[in-house]
Structure formats: structure tokens, C-alpha cells
Amino acid sequence: MLNKNIFIRLKNSLFYISIFSTLLFYACQSSVQELPQTHPYPVIQDATSSNAMAVSAHPLATRVGLSVLKKGGNAIDATIAIQFALAVVYPRAGNIGGGGFMVIRTDEGEYASLDYREKAPKLGSRDMYLNSEKNVIPNLSRIGHLAVGVPGTVDGLLKAHAKYGQLAFADLIQPAIDLAANGYKLSPKEVNRLNKTQEDFRKHNTKMPVFVKEKPWQVGDLLVQQDLAQTLTLIRDQGRAGFYEGSTADKIVAEMEAGKGIISHEDLLAYESKWRTPIIGDYKNYTIISMPPPSSGGIALMQLLKLVEPYPLSKDGFHSVDAIHTMVEAERRVYADRAKHLGDIDFYPVPQDSLLEDAYLLDRMADFSRDTATKSESVAAGAFEVAMESFETTHTSVVDKDGNAVAVTTTLNGNYGSKVVVSDAGFLLNNEMDDFSAKPGVPNMYGLIGNEANAIQPGKRMLSSMTPTIIEKDGQLHLVLGAPGGSTIITAVFQVFLNVAEFNMSLEEAVWASRFHHQWLPDQIMYEKDGLDNVVKKALEDKGHTLNERAYLALIKAIQVLPNGDLQGVGDNRSEDHAEGY
Ligand code: GLY
To answer: What does pTM read for this prediction?
Structure first.
């Protein structure tokens, strides 16, 4: 059902379609571009190909992956190359100074998930962001050196390569080195973000990084990152030791000492990514493969799907009052569980099996009424005002010619993370420590609250909402998807999947359709600007819901295997995402 929201989005996108000569190059692909008249590289947001497909947040990164795929690299090789390229061309979220999660389904149907989430440093402690009155010190966990968790990306990508890689690691990282050394032209959204962040960069860096400029950045300016090229070269030549030891480690520790941070050589040496058992569950004839703790994504997504499975969503219709109400009531209950029960499984006994038990989930909706909103206070105590900051994480989906699939979400947390660039090493450090619960019941920058399960402990990983997900239909690869968007990632993946599975949408309709989000607290339905019909909004308010408009909710990057075996890749038309295959 193509409702008004999709129509508005399609209309806006079509408005931007131009430069048809560029599109001739991609004659076999249908494409929709965002702001092509100013983006320095042609952007394709909807592409169909018969062999392989990659979707990422930047055209140059997607093309790095595509060239790996064309050279015979598999989906894991392409993903690694894309991640390093994003660390150069998408500095606000692509990273080597952050962390991420990777979900893999091989062509033989083997499932794997890799956790390279950051860890709290050894000197981290439960109350490290509290003052003497035990109140949270504003921004201490969000910006600057103390906000940084021990980075996991380099160890994670090397571990993925050691197990699944086919091409030489050096060949996968080299395109990123070249992009850093030779430079790339800035896009409209990157320029906007860089210009907005100048003051923070100046304030939180002892040595001014390349991102700082006297006059505002302009679209098309060349960004050259020589220090980053050198660091990537060390990783190419020395592997793990090129980052966690030697001169790069020395520079990280020196940066920490200069800015009163606490990451030590010992922390860097001790960092280790981990293979974990994915969350696997069924929804009707679909099998969901997603990320386990320390992500909340997989458990929450499975809970959401199981809670709504008994209800006639398809019959109710896309964005009908009944469908939204049912989905929101499920979201409210799942996020209440998230706050209480989820954290790093290596440190806290997350009741994973109980949370996904049929009997528990059935009981969870026992007080659900089709007519009235349940107040969040009655699901659990507490109510908060929340100011959601901009969030930045990034997702990549890849399928290769053999059918190996990768969904990977990586993050610095906020835009440009802690805003701290390691002096002379050229990479940004994350502000992931804010994903811990600094104090039980006090919201983080996504308005999420946590408890004991997600309290800070040395060496512990902070809870995440990243939800890299692969979905089978009748046992065959069907969808690969994920998104940035902090707390809204889980509900965006949930809705895009239901748009395909229940509301019979094509992938581009499903991804571009407007979204809504409820996270228990604050007790409100967030919805995208112009995203809900006024009649629907009024009916939801009549049921007792509070509504709150947002600019956008998460940025999905997805691939679908079409009935004829072709691969459709779709980037989010809220962003500069790029899909391309061959
Ligand atoms: N930093 C966002 C997340 O991991 O959920």
C-alpha cells in the first residue's frame, strides 16, 4: 500500500533526479539520487544487479567494496575494505577508533556474529561520571578524552579476515590508504557536519586536526589525511600490532595523557574482539539472524516480532491506527526490558533465554488493549524529559556472487565520537562510554536509561542498540539490513522488515517509508516529519498516546534477494547512502 508518506518521499527524491548522462553509465541499474547537483560523486540509492551488491554510507566506500567483489573477494573481504574506506571518507562514523558488530551468513548457511565493541578502560569505574553529590556531571561521558572506550574495530576486522578472508589483507586496506593520502571531495552533508563541529574540535584537541579550518568547508573541498594514511599503513604492515602496540599505541596513550583520559597501553594490549553465538529466531516463515549482547538489537528485535506476530498487522494495513498502536505497545514493553535486563553478557547474567521464551512474551502482552495506550509508568517506574542529540553510527550490507552475506554496523557513537583526534595518528576516538548507564535511571544521549546490567566496570562492553540483521525466507537468504540511529535502530529494522513481510512493499518503498519509534521512556511516539496522517495522529492521541515529531529516525541500508535471484540494494533517501552491484 503506497500511502501519502511514501508518495511525499518519492516526490522529494524525484525532484533531485538529474544528470542523466551519469546514469547512462549505470544503465542496468534503476537509481534515485539525492542532491546530485552538488554531491561530488554520483549517488545511487536503489540498484539491482545479478551477481553481488554493496550498500554503504558513501559512494567511494561502496565502490571500494565493489571492486573487491569484482576481483573475486567475498562479502567479508568487501566489508573489511568498505569499513577501512569509511574510516577515511565518512569520518563522522566510519572509524578505526571505535567499534562495531558483524553478522555473517555464509553461502552454506553457517551463521556467525563478531563483537568488536569498545570496552571500558581498566581505570574506568561505576561512578566515574558522577560528582561528589552522586549526580551525573553533564557531558563528561559524551565529549572529550574521558568519554572514550578502548577501540575494537582494527582487532575485529583482522579477526573477521583471519576466519573468512580470501584476498590478502593488504589489498583490502590499501584503497583506504590511497583515499587518505590523495584526498577525497567533501559532500554536502559532511560539509554541514564538519562546519557545525568546528568549535568542539578546537575545544577538545591539543593539536588541531585536519578537520579544523579557518574558513568554512565548502562542498567539493579536498580532504587529505596524511597522518591517517600513515596509521593505516602501519596496520597494513603490522596487523594488530600496528594499532594496539608500537607508535600508534604510544600516540593514543600520549593523547590520553594530554587530555586527562584513562586508556593505557595495558588496555590496548588487552583488547580482544569475540565471536559470539548470534540470536536466531523465527517469525512466520522467516528466520532472523541478529546480534546478541552486548547489543540489545537481536534480543529486542526478536521480542518485538514475537509480540506482534499474533496480531493481524497485514489486515490492519501500513500506518493504520491499529497497526501503529500494536507495534508501539510492543516497543514500549521491549525497551522496558532492555533498560533492566540487558548489558555485557561477560559481566552480567543477561536472561537471554527467558526474555525470548514464548510463555514470557505471551504474558508480556497480557495487559495490551487494542483500544487504549498502556502508560509506561505502569510497565515500569520513572519518567524523564529527554533531549536527543544527533547520533552517528554507520551500517553496511554486502552480498557476494556466491550468496555469502554480511550485515555490519560500526560506530563512534556521536557524530565524530568524542571529537578527539589522536595527535599525529589522524583518527577520531569514540565517545562510546555514554552508552553505559552512568547512573541507574538517568538517561544517556539517546534518552535510554539503564541499570545494574549496564553499569560501568573495567573491561566491560557498553550496551548497544546496533542491529545488523540477516533474514531468511523459507530457508533462503532474503534480506540483509541494519542502520545507524542509536535507540531508533531496533525499531527501524523492525518496521522495514514488516513493511516487506506484512505490508507487501518493495525494498525501496519499505526503506523510504516514514517511520515511528517508542522506547518506553520518554512515553511518546516519535514520528518523522510529515510521516503520519493527521487523522491517524488524532486517533492515536484519542487512545492516550503522546506524539513528538522528529527530523528522521535511523538510516537503513538493505539488500534483498528478489524472486528471480537478482539482488536489490537500497540506501536510505534520508542520507547520502550508495548502493551498487555488478
Ligand atoms: N552508539 C550507539 C549504539 O551502539 O547503540
So the answer is: 0.93
